[in-house]
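Exercise 7. Predict the joint structure of the components listed below.
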Amino acid sequence: MENKNVQEYWKRNLKYLSILLAIWFLVSYGCSILFVEQLNQIKIGGYKLGFWFAQQGSIYVFVGLIFIYVFLMNKLDKEFDVDEK
Amino acid sequence: MDAQTWTYIIVGATFMLYIGVAIWARAGSTKDFYVAGGGVHPIANGMATAADWMSAASFISMAGLISFMGYQGSQYLMGWTGGYVLLALLLAPYLRKFGKFTVPDFIGERYYSQTARIVAVICALFVSFTYVVGQMKGVGVAFSKFLDVPFHWGVIIGVGIVFFYAVLGGMKGITYTQVAQFCVLIFAYLVPAIFISIIMVDNPIPQLGLGGTLEDGTALLTKLDELSTELGFKEYTTSHNGKVDLFFVTAALMLGTAGLPHVIVRFFTVPKVADARKSAGWALLFIALLYTTAPAVAAFARTNLIETVNEKEYAQVPHWFKTWEGTGLLAFDDKNGDGIIQYYNDKNEDYVKNVAAPKGWQGNELTVDRDIIVLANPEIANLPAWVIALVVAGGLAAALSTAAGLLLVISTSVSHDLLKKWLKPDISPEKELMAARISIAVAVVIAGYFGINPPGFVAQVVAWAFGLAAASFFPAIILGIFSKRMNMQGAISGMIVGLVFTGSYIVYFKYLGGTSNQYWFGISPEGIGTLGMLVNTCVALIVSRFTPAPPVSVQEMVEHIRIPKGAGDAAIH
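Solution:
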């Protein structure tokens, strides 16, 4: 494969990584730890929102992030023709 | 039938299942033995990873920990799941593309250095041993509590089973038994949780039940907050310790998860790079089933426990109370001699002065071992006897599957990294396979021995295993993939500084009498791995800039692992 293409592929990958990891950080450390008191002011059903993020929501988001990455990368691999046949 | 008979039947049946699977999935080659032939379906690998990951501690102790820590327990929930995001995004696909058998393999080749390989092997061995001894202890506890077998015989039976399928099947046998063990353990965890959720908040989904309302119309969590403050404890759902430590512990557990060798090697077993990513997603989904249920179990059990026993006459307590007193996990000490159980926070001075003393209470009278939350939960909620038996089988499945995965790492470290790659490079594949079988056999026996006579350091599994994995492997692997300029000198000095820093902090505070007011920035030894990781990274980056760039062949290898194409088989290179 062309060297330029490899670099472009890697750059796109890094872009996806930084966006997804930013969300990962925001949900776990942001919503669940640093801003938990503020979010606890909001109530959803019997849950305080900050507590829900810390013990439920963050885990759901983690699972979602991985599958989104799988989807994005499968598409990217095809686009740059680097997928395994 | 009583619970005892049910336990014999269910535990016996699951053990037969594991043995059957092991005979079916025997290993014929080193590749079978190390990476299950590299042909495991991503969903199967996800289940195996989940079983490998969820240990006796996750199954038995975690809900109990949360039950007594409340919001603060979130560090385990997030810490032990969030690492999979790092694994899937930053490690698994590239290591799969690299296509070797072990983590020290990667470190050794990427940093073109035998020293780096040996540092990695020693870390892998230490981390895995600390971890596996805890599992063996868990097996012993489960047997001795439920089957009336002496503790050491419990460990020996567990060792025997693992011995059989690990020596016979290597990674292949372990992978497929772990799939079976995952099914057993998740079923065993969810059934009682669903029952209790229906009983308490009339919702069959525990994840929703945690936010549900009780019969009297108050929300479960509000009720639990009230009960907690009434007894002088802190509110269940709010934070009360320093945020810094919570932050650092959560991060150390995440980084450690992503750096633990027995988790990483699971991603060498799938056929393709794309499968490694997908497999991490499935693994986390399966893990999340238990990890989102655990906080519900914790809250249900805590509410239940307080309401059933607090300020009740001891003569009137339910049957299960007396049974569990017999095991020593639950103890009542009638300090003021009034025959009534007073359960409250006697460390809270205001509460003792203003509430407890005027009522004539002379200290908390109930001590509850946290493990009881999961183990006794079915009895507390009056569930049928077979559910109790199921929980025992689930706990054993969790402990055995984790132990097997760790033992495999130990044996490959010896037969592959030490023998084949270092001491005796000309060893034939047949002899290497034999060496792998012998070393796993020896490792099983040693782990069993330490399970019965645990050395002091294994009590600190969380601090040691996760701290060291976070401070050594994680940065070395990440920098190896994402920084082409990272070289041998940088990586080795980073790992050594990270290890020494983290190790000394843990030793000082856990063994040499350091007290919590001496913590740096309020970080406990469980969270110091995060700082160790940062120190490692900084040292590695600085040293690498002042030393020569890695050879061209290594730089090309880094280019090569960044794209999925041409992954091929795990062994060919």
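Discussion. Chain B touches chain A through 53 residues (CB under 8 Å).
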